[in-house]
Amino acid sequence: MSNLGLIIKREFSTRVRKRSFIILTLLGPILMAVLLFLPAYLATLPGDLKVITVLDESILMDFEKGTDEIKLRYLPPDKFKLEQAQEFSKQEGDYAFLYIPLSEGGDPDFLGRNVQLFRDGDVALSVEGFIEDKLEEYIQKEKLKVEGVDPEIIARTKTQVNIRIINTEDGLEAENTTLVKMGIGYVAAFAIYLFIFIYGSQIMRGVIEEKNNRIMELMVSSIKPFELMMGKIMGIGLLALLQFVIWIGLGMLLYFIATSIFISPSLESGELMANAGTNMGAMADTPVFEIWRSLQGIDFISVILSFIYYFIGGYLLYGALFAAVGSAVDKESDSQQMVLPITIPLILSLLVILRALDNPDGALAFWFSMVPLSSPLVMMARLPFGVEWWELLVSMLLLALAFLGGVWIAAKIYRVGILMYGKKPTFTEMFRWIRYKN
Question: Do 296 and 429 have their domain in common?
Fold first, then answer.
């Protein structure tokens, strides 16, 4: 077996047996799901009850009860003055005190300029927004009354419109699946981001550790530095690919189980087929069936194959750069400054995919899906929506060329850096290493 094969086997076998790899492989999908959906879930949880004392001299909000999180306590304006009401609110330990002064001459705009909210400390944005929305609603009603318009007539004329969006791509009519495509694109892009960071950092730490243990000095006497670097990158890359395949397998297994439990029985039931007009319509309104129907219109084969390519290409490109950084420093703490230029494109890509999910055909999404340092994330965010074949081909070709160029640059730095100790090189010195001739 060649030296490269031996290094790949060593890097793969020593890590695949570690308990941390097994635990991360089994718990990774759960942790990723928690990371993606926990913020949304926490946002739905009820907050602490906030009691706000209200002195409403204009009798605008007298009938407003508040919400589950905001309770309004009204004080009679004929018994309380401003100072007395403030003192009462403090004694009761209320969250805040709201003062609505008496409108001068019945001018509604006066209220919009002179309402005050008092609190010892900052006011939550949810509270501020709630009060502003309610006051705007009531002041608008007062303005309508001044103009001689009955607010109830305006309220009765409000109509809610729910647009049914039909996708006519390829001459076929299908229900819109934008939300599902956005979810798939974001999860795929975020997964590549995590894999690059996790396994790129492993490459860097492994190089630093072997360099400090002086193992490198023994290995480079019989192995070329380029073989050593590529063996480490490919060995750890195979480990990441194995983990990805396991995760895909678990995901497909869960999908088929969910389909067989929630979808298939309903589709095969004789009662449903006997009265398709009623039952199918009722079933189509269920969230589970809606998600299942949306998934049917997505070309998962193309998405998965493209994911594998961009995952491998992005990992190899960034893995080579992480290996170069690891070879240039002696301690992991010294690597932070040099890692920053590598991580900036990744972080910027995360910001761009939010725009790409909203407008996948826009100029910003297009160009960032062409640039090799950002294309693994941004192109994956665009793919579920459909991408022209030539765009995908050009993006993949540029990523392959960037990988070859990145490996060449990293190999130049790696060859010199692994044998340097006791000095943290500057970017100028590393640039000179790249220019060294063999």
Answer: yes
Per-residue H/E/C for 108-133: HHHHHHHCEEECCCCCCHHHHHHHHH
Q: DSSP label at 261?
A: I
Identity of the amino acid at 130: F
Counting other chains too, the contacts that 125-134 makes at CB distance below 8 Å and 24 or more residues apart are 126/47, 126/69, 126/70, 127/50, 127/52, 127/70, 127/95, 127/96, 130/67, 130/70, 131/52, 131/98, 134/61, 134/64
Same domain, 408 and 380: yes
- Judged by DSSP in three states, 360 sits in coil
> At 425, phi and psi to the nearest 5?
-75, 155
Q: Do 232 and 355 have their domain in common?
A: yes
The answer to whether the beta carbons of residues 424 and 325 sit under 8 Å apart is: no
**Tokens describing residue 227:** 């073989």
Provide the whole-model pTM: 0.69
Task: Give pLDDT tens digits for 391-408.
Answer: 999 999 999 999 888 888
Provide, for the chain, the percentages of residues in helix, strand and coil under a 3-state DSSP scheme, each rounded to the nearest 5: 70, 5, 25
